[in-house]
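2024-03-11 09:14:02 INFO worker-7 job=invfold-0412 stage=load source=structure_tokens
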């Protein structure tokens, strides 16, 4: 009986062993490689490419953000990728090594050769959630119109993109600490999840939370939806617009809670990234929010952030926030506010 069982299990054992060996071989063959202009190469796992930066991980260096200017070519086949070029052409496949300054796009139907600098976004769509995350976490001191002393500033900018689904989350806060009390001067949370049904067009959700002492706003919530259009994609920059309709609920520092307000958000975002020599980035986000049932009320919110990378993933950041409300919740408060921030940020 034991001999019969051995004869039955022997083929299963051999097939299992062959399967594991083949899996190891295939895994080894799918190792991704970056080929540097200096002649060095780095093997590991290619996660994604966006705005001139490659997210790459290896056993030797862990997770790294590497500028495309340092790369002569690359090979990536650990996952299947959604590859978008600066011409807004989308391919699905992998990337192969080519001559310096070029890269191969390998699809199921064809092999194309394009300049490396024409890659706009490369996102893996069959990998984990965290591999498609990127962002900046920053802390610093700030001077504001509403406070003459130094206060703590926090800024967090987190993005997700897997080829179709995208989400941008921005969170900022300005808080002063004194011997008497803690004052929350300014708080802002902005979330825009979206789905790209073409390389340029997306349907998007619009959600935000705001607190601003200078404008007399204790809290304001916004929930809405709209469409977004990416009208500019270049090697060093990109820009898009989002427009829609949203409902608003707000309360003043010394007033009642109001709901049922309607606004028409119109948001512009522009990104400039000069990574060849000085690793400089500039982001401009400005939004106009006309009231639809508020007797001509118009609000505006935005920020400008400039960042300079000093060591690997650490950067020096300067941020300027601006706010405007033609009809503050209470007339005794100001119609405008601004903040200037200096801080150190960590990018991932």
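2024-03-11 09:14:09 INFO worker-7 stage=emit residues=348
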């Amino acid at each position: 009986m034991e001999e019969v069982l051995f004869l039955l299990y022997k083929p299963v054992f051999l097939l299992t062993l062959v399967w594991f060996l083949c899996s190891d071989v295939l895994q080894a063959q799918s190792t991704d490689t970056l080929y540097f202009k200096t002649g060095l190469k780095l093997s590991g796992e290619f996660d994604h490419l966006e705005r001139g930066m490659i997210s790459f991980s290896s056993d030797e260096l862990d997770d790294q953000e590497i500028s495309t200017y340092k790369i002569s070519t690359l090979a990536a086949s650990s996952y299947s990728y959604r590859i978008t070029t600066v011409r807004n052409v989308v391919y699905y496949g992998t990337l192969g090594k080519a001559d310096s300054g070029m890269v191969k796009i390998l699809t199921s139907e064809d092999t194309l050769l394009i300049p490396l600098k024409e890659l706009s976004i490369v996102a893996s769509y069959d990998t984990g959630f965290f591999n498609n995350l990127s962002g900046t976490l920053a802390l610093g001191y700030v001077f504001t119109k509403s406070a003459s002393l130094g206060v703590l500033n926090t800024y967090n900018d987190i993005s997700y993109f897997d080829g179709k689904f995208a989400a941008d989350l921005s969170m900022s806060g300005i808080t002063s600490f004194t011997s008497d009390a803690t004052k929350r001067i300014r708080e802002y949370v902005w979330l825009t999840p979206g789905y790209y049904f073409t390389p340029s067009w997306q349907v998007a959700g619009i959600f935000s939370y705001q607190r601003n002492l200078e404008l007399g706003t204790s809290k304001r919530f916004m929930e809405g939806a709209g469409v977004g259009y990416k009208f500019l994609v270049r090697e060093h920059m990109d820009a898009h617009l989002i427009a829609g309709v949203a409902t608003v609920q707000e309360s003043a520092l010394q007033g009642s809670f109001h709901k049922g307000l309607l606004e028409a958000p119109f948001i512009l975002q522009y990104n400039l990234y000069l990574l060849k020599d000085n690793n400089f980035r500039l982001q401009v986000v400005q939004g106009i929010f006309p009231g639809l049932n508020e007797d001509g009320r118009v609000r505006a919110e935005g920020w400008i952030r400039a960042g300079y990378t000093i060591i690997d993933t650490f950067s020096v950041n300067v941020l300027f926030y601006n706010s405007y409300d033609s009809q503050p919740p209470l007339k005794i408060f100001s119609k405008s506010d601004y903040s200037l921030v200096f801080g150190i940020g960590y990018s991932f």
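2024-03-11 09:14:09 INFO worker-7 stage=report msg="The CA atoms of residues 75 and 275 lie 21 Å apart."
2024-03-11 09:14:10 INFO worker-7 job finished
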